[in-house]
Amino acid sequence: MRFENKVAVVTGSGGGIGEGYARALAREGAAVVVAEIATEDGERVAREIREEGGKALFVQTDVASEESTRALGQAARDEFGGVDLLVNNAAIYKTMELHGLLTVPMDYYERFMAVNQTGCILVTRAVYESMVERGGGASG
After folding, report:
1. Domain ranges, residue 36
2. Contact call for residues 64 and 118 (beta carbons, < 8 A)
3. What tens digit of pLDDT does each residue of 14-70 get?
4. Tally of domains in the chain
5. What share of the chain is helix, strand, coil (3-state, %, to 5)?
C-alpha cells in the first residue's frame, strides 16, 4: 500500500498503459482520477477499480483543452481533496500517422502536438498548486 492516502491523476487511462498505471496505483492504495477523453472507456476503468475495492473517479478530459484540464484539477480537489501524483500518459499513439515534415497535414500535426506536448503542460498546470499544497508530489 505504498500510495495509501495519496491521490493520482492518470491521463489517457481508459485503456492500454494508462489503464495499467491506474489499476496499479489503485492496488497500491491510491485514489485514482481516470482522466480520459473516451467516456465509455474511462467510466469502465473507474467502475472496475471501485468494484475491486479501490477509489476511482472518472473525469472526461481533453488534455489539449485548457478548460477541460482545469475542470479535471477541480474535480480531483472536490472529490479527493487534491492531487499527489500525476501520470501524463495521454497521447496520440495507436492511431499515429507517419508523415514527412514536408507532407504532414497541418491539422493532424497541430492536434498531435496539442495532445502529446501541450497536454502535458496543461494538465501539470491544472494540478500543480494542489500538489504543492499537499506537500510536494511527483509527475511523470
Report:
1. 7-139
2. yes
3. 999 999 999 999 999 999 999 999 999 999 999 999 999 999 999 999 999 999 999
4. 1
5. 50, 15, 35
Does 70 reside within a domain? yes
Location of C-alpha cell 497541430: 110
CA distances (Å), origin 135, targets 7, 21, 46, 69, 84: 12, 22, 26, 21, 8
Nearest 5°: the CA angle 61, 84, 67 is 25
Residue 95 has pLDDT above 80, yes or no: no
For the full predicted model, state whether its pTM sits above 0.85: yes
Of 62, 63, 52, 61, the residue nearest 25 (C-alpha): 52
Nearest to 87 by CA among 134, 33, 42, 45: 33
